[in-house]
């Protein structure tokens, strides 16, 4: 009979903790205690290897926190959408005092490094205007330093003969002779600007109705001398008011210089296209 040798199975001893494991255990103990204090559990109830059960108090608190955050974001989006809708409705109902449909605006720059002087720059800007005005579907085009549709006005201090010593604020613009025709407005009194109002001619200006009423209520503004920030000119015409695109904002007194006399290297180009003309983006 063959001898049977009985061999006891060898049990593998548990390896000693490595330095990394001991370090993890040391770092976990304070974190576990902080979690327990935060959620009201004892450290023994918080296991590092098992998540909290869906029915635990900690889970319910987290879920309520997420619900609160989502409701807050939904309310903020609702308020923002309401304000945006109100602004769109107000802008759609805005009557600027001219026909705003079919009016486009772009920005032109004559680089100083290329054109050297403001005189050369204005000539280049006006030539660009002429080329755009000749395009099919374009009814008119004009140059301006700013426009009621997008703002950008500049403010100066007005002084005039026989007025109080303290200067009075006014808005001013530089425009070309085609600007008011492009917007579809007409000169109410006096004359408009012309290509003959050059840099070598006596400075002239147009003013709006609010300007004329406020500063010349008892006199004819035509021919009056006004100075804005040391720049003087004679008033030659009165144009209609343009209403601001903010309903609560009053019309300001405004003065308009010829772009050939108050020269710079850039201007907005305002374009009026014919009805039915589409502009590619």
How would you portray this structure in words?
This protein has helices spanning 19-39, 57-92, 112-115, 118-133, 179-183, 209-215; strands spanning 103-109, 138-144, 154-160, 168-175, 189-190, 204-208, 225-228, 231-239, 254-258, 266-273. It is α+β, with helices and mostly antiparallel strands. Strands 3-4-9-6-8-7 form a 6-stranded mixed barrel. It has a 3-stranded antiparallel β-sheet with strand order 1-10-2. The termini are far apart.
Write the layout of secondary structure elements.
Elements (H helix, E strand, L loop, with lengths): L18 H21 L17 H36 L10 E7 L2 H4 L2 H16 L4 E7 L9 E7 L7 E8 L3 H5 L5 E2 L13 E5 H7 L9 E4 L2 E9 L14 E5 L7 E8 L8
Parallel strand pairs: 4-9, 6-8
Antiparallel strand pairs: 1-10, 2-10, 3-4, 3-7, 5-8, 6-9, 7-8
């Amino acid at each position: 009979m063959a001898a049977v040798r009985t061999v006891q199975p060898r049990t593998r001893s548990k390896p000693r903790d490595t330095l990394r494991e001991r370090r993890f255990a040391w770092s976990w103990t304070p974190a576990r205690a902080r979690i327990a204090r935060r959620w009201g559990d004892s450290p023994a109830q918080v296991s590092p290897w098992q998540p909290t059960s869906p029915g635990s108090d900690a889970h319910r608190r987290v879920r309520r926190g997420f619900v609160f955050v989502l409701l807050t974001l939904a309310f903020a989006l609702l308020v923002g959408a309401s304000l945006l809708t109100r602004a769109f409705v107000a802008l759609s109902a805005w009557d600027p005092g001219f026909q705003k449909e079919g009016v486009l605006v772009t920005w032109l720059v004559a680089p100083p490094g290329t054109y050297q002087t403001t005189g050369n720059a204005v000539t280049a800007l006006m030539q660009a205007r002429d080329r755009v005005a000749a395009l099919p579907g374009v009814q008119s085009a004009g140059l301006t330093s700013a426009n009621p549709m997008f703002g950008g006005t500049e403010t100066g201090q007005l002084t005039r003969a026989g007025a109080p010593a303290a200067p009075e604020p006014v808005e001013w613009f530089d425009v070309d002779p085609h600007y008011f025709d492009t917007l579809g407005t007409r000169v109410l009194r006096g004359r408009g600007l012309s290509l003959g109002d050059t840099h070598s001619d006596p400075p002239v200006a147009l003013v709006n109705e609010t300007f004329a009423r406020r500063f010349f209520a008892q006199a004819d503004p035509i021919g009056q001398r006004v100075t804005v920030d040391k720049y003087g000119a004679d008033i030659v015409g009165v144009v209609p008011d343009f209403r601001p695109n903010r309903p609560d904002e009053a019309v300001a007194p405004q003065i308009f210089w010829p772009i050939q006399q108050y020269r710079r290297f850039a201007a907005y180009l305002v374009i009026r296209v014919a009805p039915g003309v589409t502009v590619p983006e």
